[in-house]
Write a structure and sequence with these properties.
68 residues
Length: 68
């Protein structure tokens, strides 16, 4: 995928850990943890680093996939 995230286990404890059943589950847990007033972000602030991962979760086509 081109991107690796380091997990702070203590940060994710309030929402049941960092294992996800789906992209929607990841999004829901992330919304619970986000606290912009205290500058607590779920992912790094550079969204471009997560772009490929989210695209793959939601079935975006890959330009390098073999055809046929």
């Amino acid at each position: 995928m081109g991107q690796i995230y380091v997990v702070n286990e203590d940060f994710w404890k309030p929402v049941g850990g960092y294992a996800f059943d789906s992209a929607q589950d990841f999004l829901d847990k992330g919304k619970e943890l986000l606290d912009t007033r205290r500058k607590k972000y779920v992912l790094e602030p550079a969204y471009v680093n997560a772009h490929n991962m989210f695209a793959q979760w939601f079935g975006a086509p890959s330009s390098w996939r073999l055809d046929g």
